[in-house]
């Protein structure tokens, strides 16, 4: 399969990335939400099934890159979003963008971490786009987990500044 | 097309390759950035990762005796959850490394989590399933030797 493979074009590259992101979204899909404690527990229990789900359902030839480094749940009022580490894509909520701009340029390393790539930023962006009047500091998060090991990851200083 | 910075940051990649004709290694990147020269070998690394699927869990394994000094675990249950994925690799005959400092994507130190009981023997057992080699495996091997503590934190990719 790999021997005869032609080098991927830019289009196939983006298509594969999009498929992988879709697969990851399916893997972290949680339908029932009661409270943040419950969501946190659910995420912790999901770490193991996520690994097998992704490995089983992968259709891209990017076999080396399947697992997200971090997953997290964000809660704003009665809405919630589970997301993972990835580059922040447009549209970006204005209040979040303004906060991100105070710590550095989006997509560039500010000496602490790459601004806007954290799971916290991606999950909160979705919620802030839904509730435009809400402030980033109103969002509550579950603990961030690394699916490979189920270990709790410390929140980076960038996210601590943005979300207090 | 090489692995982009975006891909490296967005995925906890599994890299598999043989080292210097001695053993097979697995490296979990934990969303860290690795040397450009290594990341250009995406075809090789994807091919090796696909080959890994056909390996069978058939070997005895050992856990790094220094693991508790390198990582802090809340309980033995959390320790068990942590090592599970690496044990899977070791049981398939790979010396399995994890990124030591997962908070800094630019840090390049790694530590062994689990390894097969007899790595040398395994290399010959695995001959029938060929993993593609990478050009600077000798440098990586040298880095392991130079670290003086094979079971501590190792800068696997210095001089690459």
What does this molecule look like?
The complex is a heterodimer of chains A (164) and B (160). Chain A is an alpha+beta fold and 164 residues long. Chain A contains five helices and five strands. In chain A, the strands form two sheets. In chain A, strands 2-1-3 form a three-stranded antiparallel β-sheet, with helices on both faces. A two-stranded antiparallel ribbon of chain A has the order 4-5. Residues 1-5 of chain A have low confidence and may be disordered. In chain B, strands 1, 2, 3, 4, 5 and 6 form a six-stranded mixed β-sheet that branches. Chain B has helices at residues 5-10, 36-39, 42-52, 67-70, 76-91, 119-125, 137-146; strands at 14-19, 23-28, 61-63, 94-99, 109-116, 153-155. Chain B has one domain. With 160 residues, chain B is α+β, with helices and mostly antiparallel strands. In chain B, strand 1 (14-19) and strand 2 (23-28) form a beta hairpin. The mean pLDDT of chain B is 88. Chain B is globular and about 40 Å long. Classes of the chains: A alpha+beta (164), B alpha+beta (160). Chain A binds chain B through residues 1-2, 5, 7-8, 13, 17, 47-48, 51, 61-70, 84-87, 109, 113-114, 117, 146-151, 153-154, 156, and chain B through 1, 3, 6-7, 9-16, 28, 30-31, 42-43, 45-50, 52-53, 78, 81-82, 84-85, 98, 102-103, 105-106.
Number of discrete domains of chain A? 1
Largest sheet descriptor of chain A: 3 strands, antiparallel
Oligomer: heterodimer
What is the total number of structural domains of chain B? Answer: 1
Our Rg estimate of chain A from Cα atoms comes to 16 Å
Low-confidence stretches of chain B: none
For the largest sheet of chain A, list the strands in their spatial order.
2-1-3
Number of helices of chain B: 7
Query: For the CA atoms, what is the radius of gyration of chain B?
Result: 15 Å
Strand proportion of chain B: 15-25%
- Tally the helices of chain A: what do you get? 5
Biggest sheet character of chain B = 6 strands, mixed
**Helices and strands of chain A: which structural class?**
alpha+beta
